[in-house]
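Please decode residue identities from the backbone states below.
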């Protein structure tokens, strides 16, 4: 007979082994749907099928992203939990875990890219270990009392998120010219090179400048297509709603309004978050808000961090806030240095509020926020200068004077940047807009009027209700007013950004400031409720909280429903987003106007030969960095190895230009018929009428375009074709002269001063059709 104790030990060991195997098998099994989804979205030919064929590939593609999106969000949260567990051993909120996790991944991806180790095996291994570590202890989500108002609000929020996800996140952006030129190409290059550094044959320096610091996007792009940027933006979109929810719970005076207001705080805060996400741009014109931003860009990432910083400086500071403020500020500023300006505004507002409160801990948190932004800004500018030779190209007028010509000449041309700045800045009227300041005052007055109306309406309900009650509230039962610093920070930030947005005519700032739209409902309702809380202290007997909270919730819920239906839902229907889920090809979607088939046709008809487009700049956007074409097939106008020789090709003589192009292996030249959208190289002396006849022949002609090549033997371009091309080029110059008063190309070529007297900018619309 064996020893019973040994038998028990063996049985216990077998039981432990079985438990371990079952536990880890379950955890690994949880990751199987994500692995299958990653495999499907990366299949060869998927993008082509989405564009031209659709069908079941599109349906499964949508399903794959529906499966993958929660996993990506889980990875961000898990990273945040791990970061906090390593640095700060204290309880955290999920919103803090998300943003700290995102900041940690931004910096990690940036570091991996700098070390050239952004390989999918490494990133996927890192992600798998992170999720397996986090799955050891599943934290129960915070539970709220399930009530009818909360159910109704939750359903409204679900409706909003589903429509935005389908319309903006899951459908690949084939409309925005910037996404196709400046964002998706760099993510594809990072995945190809496993590094943030640029390849010599594809020096897309502008993409590098705006993209190399966005480590979260870079990490995901190593094992997913560039379309993942839209999914990441959706995660940030949801995070903005979560931050507004937390802000509403902090800045509104719930206790001072009464017990029933406290009970209604959760559904009202959630309704405000939904209303903020669906809120459009306000006066002087109604235009889209967060839900319609280009999700393929990084704007929603910065928007989410900006509103999170408001939360950090508005609430009572804890130790975790100092760490969160520092790491998140460094990550945001490192992703793109100009963002540090708005972070510094938030930091200053927070520091001022905390000084007034005599909150030393909160003051330190605000200071760390500003210091982190400065550190991240210096880090990014230094890397840019050491690598590119220029700290930043925006604002170009500031950094143009400290550029290193030797380093920058490896990537681009300062002459080309001069042309780009001149041609863009001529479209801006005045830097300081008096009319914008007046519009800001009108907007501020309208917001105050709405807040006053809301307060009066709610007070009227409370007053009538108090007259119908037998029990009157007593003054000694009133809770003290909370500190208004949180509301001050939110309102002051919204006002500051809107004033800058409307008074300074800077397009980049206008795009960046869209995020404040989401804070308008919170700021307006906050002022109204604080007015109620103050009024209640003077006449408590006239104030009942029995019906007023329900009336307030109903009003906000109705406003959120109307906003969602009038804007995100309307966009969803106009875009016919549900048809994409059903299998409609992208090229058949209603807002897709660009000719993607032309890109495919050029690839099939010209083999490996590279093509330089002389005109049709906007029409050729789908072709510049398209995955349908051989890499570098269509030469980009200002980001390519050809653009690097701008001085020789565009500004030099015909002989110099031809020699430079031949040395770069450029053999084909695209000219679109009935299109006057010439830009940069198309104005070179090489393409004057006489030079066209002498140096070029027609390789291929269709009803839509000419495809020219170098003359060979007796073949040459006919005088008729040369005259037609020259006429398009001449008309292009005339249109620019009518619009600007000068030709931007001639200003740069001959070092002329820009003409401050502008013509009719509306004539620029004639470029694409030459009418």
């Amino acid at each position: 007979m064996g020893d019973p104790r040994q038998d028990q030990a063996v049985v216990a060991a077998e039981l432990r082994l079985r438990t371990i195997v079952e536990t880890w098998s379950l955890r690994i099994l949880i990751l199987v749907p994500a692995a299958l989804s990653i495999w499907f979205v990366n299949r060869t030919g998927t993008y082509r099928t989405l564009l031209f064929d659709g069908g079941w590939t599109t349906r499964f593609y949508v399903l794959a992203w529906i499966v993958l999106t929660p996993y990506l969000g889980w990875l961000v949260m898990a990273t945040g939990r791990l970061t906090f567990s390593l640095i700060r051993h204290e309880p955290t909120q999920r919103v803090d875990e998300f943003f700290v996790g995102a900041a940690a991944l931004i910096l990690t991806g940036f570091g991996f890219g700098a070390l050239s180790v952004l390989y999918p095996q490494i990133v996927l291994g890192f992600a798998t270990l992170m999720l397996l570590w986090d799955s050891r202890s599943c934290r129960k989500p915070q539970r709220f009392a399930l009530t009818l108002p909360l159910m109704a609000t939750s359903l409204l929020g679900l409706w909003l998120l589903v429509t935005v996800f389908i319309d903006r996140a899951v459908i690949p952006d084939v409309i925005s010219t910037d996404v196709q030129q400046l964002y998706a190409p760099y993510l594809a290059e990072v995945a190809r090179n496993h590094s943030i550094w640029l390849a010599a044959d594809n020096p897309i320096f502008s993409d590098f400048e705006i993209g190399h610091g966005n480590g979260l996007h870079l990490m995901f792009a190593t094992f997913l297509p560039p379309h993942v940027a839209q999914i990441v933006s959706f995660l940030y979109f949801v995070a903005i709603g979560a931050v507004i929810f937390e802000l509403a719970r902090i800045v509104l005076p719930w206790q001072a309004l009464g017990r029933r207001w406290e009970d209604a705080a959760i559904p009202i805060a959630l309704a405000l978050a939904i209303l903020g996400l669906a809120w459009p741009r306000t006066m002087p014109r109604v235009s889209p808000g967060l839900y319609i931003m280009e999700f393929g860009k990084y704007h929603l990432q910065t928007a989410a961090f900006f509103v999170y910083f408001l939360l950090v400086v508005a609430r009572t500071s804890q130790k975790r806030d100092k760490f969160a403020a520092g790491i998140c500020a460094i990550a945001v500023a490192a992703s793109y240095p100009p963002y540090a300006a708005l972070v510094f505004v938030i930091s200053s507002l927070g520091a001022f509020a905390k000084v007034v409160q005599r909150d030393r801990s909160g003051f330190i948190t605000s200071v760390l926020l500003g210091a982190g932004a400065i550190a991240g800004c210096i880090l990014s500018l230094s890397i840019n200068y050491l690598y590119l030779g220029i700290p930043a190209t925006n604002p170009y007028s500031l950094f143009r004077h400290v550029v290193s010509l030797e380093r920058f000449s490896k990537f681009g041309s300062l002459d080309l940047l001069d042309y780009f700045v001149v041609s863009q800045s001529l479209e801006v009227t005045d830097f300081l807009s008096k009319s914008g300041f007046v519009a800001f005052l009108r907007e501020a007055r309208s917001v105050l009027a709405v807040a006053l109306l809301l307060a009066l309406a709610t007070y009227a309900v409370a007053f009538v209700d108090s007259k119908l009650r037998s029990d009157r509230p007593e003054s000694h039962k009133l809770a003290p007013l909370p500190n208004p610093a949180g509301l001050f920070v939110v309102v002051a930030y919204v006002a500051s950004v809107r004033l800058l947005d409307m008074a300074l005519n800077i397009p980049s700032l206008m795009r960046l400031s869209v995020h404040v739209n989401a804070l308008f409902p919170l700021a307006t309702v906050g002022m109204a409720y604080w007015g109620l809380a103050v009024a209640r202290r003077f006449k408590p007997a006239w104030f009942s909280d029995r019906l007023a909270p329900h009336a307030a919730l109903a009003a906000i819920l109705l406003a959120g429903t109307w906003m969602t239906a009038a804007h995100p839902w309307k966009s969803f229907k106009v875009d016919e987003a549900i048809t994409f889920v059903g299998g409609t090809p992208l090229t058949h979607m209603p807002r897709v106007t660009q000719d993607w088939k032309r890109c495919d046709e050029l690839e099939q008809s010209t083999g490996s030969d590279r093509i330089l487009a002389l005109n049709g700049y906007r029409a050729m956007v789908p072709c510049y960095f398209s995955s349908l074409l051989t890499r570098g097939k269509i030469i980009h106008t200002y980001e390519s190895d050809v653009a690097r020789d701008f001085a020789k090709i565009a500004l030099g003589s015909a002989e110099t230009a031809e020699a430079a192009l031949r040395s770069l292996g450029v053999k084909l030249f695209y000219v679109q018929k009935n299109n006057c959208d010439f830009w940069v190289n198309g104005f070179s002396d090489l393409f004057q009428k006489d030079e066209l006849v002498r140096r070029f022949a027609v390789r291929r002609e269709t009803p839509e375009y000419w495809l020219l090549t170098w003359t060979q033997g007796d073949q040459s371009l006919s005088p008729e074709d040369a005259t037609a091309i020259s006429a398009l080029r001449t008309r292009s110059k005339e249109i620019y002269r009518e619009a600007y008063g000068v030709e931007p190309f001639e200003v740069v070529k001959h070092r002329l001063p820009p003409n401050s007297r502008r013509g009719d900018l509306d004539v620029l619309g004639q470029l694409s059709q030459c009418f």
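Observation: The first strand starts at residue 610 and ends at 613.
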